[in-house]
Amino acid sequence: MYLKQGDKVIVIAGKDKGKEGNVTKLLKSKDRVIVEGINLAKKHQKAGQGNEAGIIEKEMGIHVSNVMLVDEKDNKPTRVGYTVKDGKKVRVSKRSGNIV
Prior knowledge:
Layout: E1 8-11, E2 20-27, E3 32-35, E4 40-45, E5 54-59, E6 62-63, E7 67-70, E8 77-78, E9 80-85, E10 88-93
Antiparallel strand pairs: 1-2, 1-7, 2-3, 3-6, 4-5, 7-8, 9-10
């Protein structure tokens, strides 16, 4: 998976197309990411220890193919490539060539 927790991404498909947010969690086994403020669903929650009863909005997973990393140089979506620098594999923005 080319994304990491904390990356800024933009949604390129689906009901939230065009919105931006940061990756909060990776679900590698399902090829999904959870992005803050994206793909919100309403959940009916029962009262419990530490929880209030009511309807809450929860961020659901979105497939990795529906998001793209945002290039820090010009704030536009970019593909991700890899290169070896100082003996370590690093992610590189295809748009600007900068190390991510």
